[in-house]
Amino acid sequence: MKWNKKLAILGAFVLLLWLFPTKGHAQSVDDQASLFTEEQITVLNQLAANLDEKIKGRVYIVTTTSNDDSEETYADNYLRNKVGNNQNGSVFLIDMGQRGYHVSTSGNMIDYLTDSRLEKMLDSIQENLSAGSYFEAAKSYLEESSAYVSDGVPGGHYRVDRDTGKITYYKVLTPFEIIIALTVASIISLITFFWIKSTYQLKRKTYHYPFREKATVTLADQSDRLTKSFVTTRRIPKPSNNNNGGGFGGGSTTHSSGGGTFGGGGGKF
């Protein structure tokens, strides 16, 4: 009887799990090189989960000892396999075999982690890696990325393709511009409302609108046109393989890989 009771309780528990599965966040740390303790992985996964919520995407940390490609190629491929081309995300690679590191960005993370921001982040990462502080390097990547996401995309931001030199500018509204736009729109709306109201103040019982005679609808072709984005092209020398993303501090340097667009940068330690 006791065993039957235990089996019944166990069956009910399994049934509840099947009917109401627990929500969990997929692991963001792929520690192939065994650089982190279990406690450190838990901390990093939590920081990554918080950043995922901010960017509506995924961020990762991967360590390896068996990479035969360049750090950039490995990181781009890893990120593409995880989130797909041009989706929101980033990955921080620590390559112990080649003593290199790389941060690869995609989607909105390209715009959040501009070249100048990346340069500051990578300086901190390299310092920690050179000292053997791998956990601190990974933690710095997540915390600084989160801070930059909170700061938002800088005004006047643009992307520059390092291979073609094509520059794409994006209009980013500042909080002050948003407040001014809302204020002006509100004033114009109120003026329009009171003007129309005063114009059509007619007595209900003495006037009837001939809606049947005037209920005519004329359909016309409509086309959509993209605004607030424009492209200029100029030739820019390809950057050298150094410690930052590309050296164009005012924007984000990008490159094409496997059908997707990626940003980022890295170096050796």
Automatic annotation (TrEMBL):
Transmembrane feature ranges: 178-196
Biased composition (Gly residues): 244-269
Keyword annotations of the record: Membrane, Signal, Transmembrane, Transmembrane helix
Protein name, as recorded: TPM domain-containing protein
UniProt cross-references to Pfam families, sorted A to Z: TPM_phosphatase (PF04536)
Domain of life: Bacteria
Organism encoding this protein: Enterococcus camelliae
Domain TPM: 29-145
Signal sequence segment: 1-26
Region feature Disordered, mapped onto this chain: 235-269
InterPro entries assigned: TPM_dom
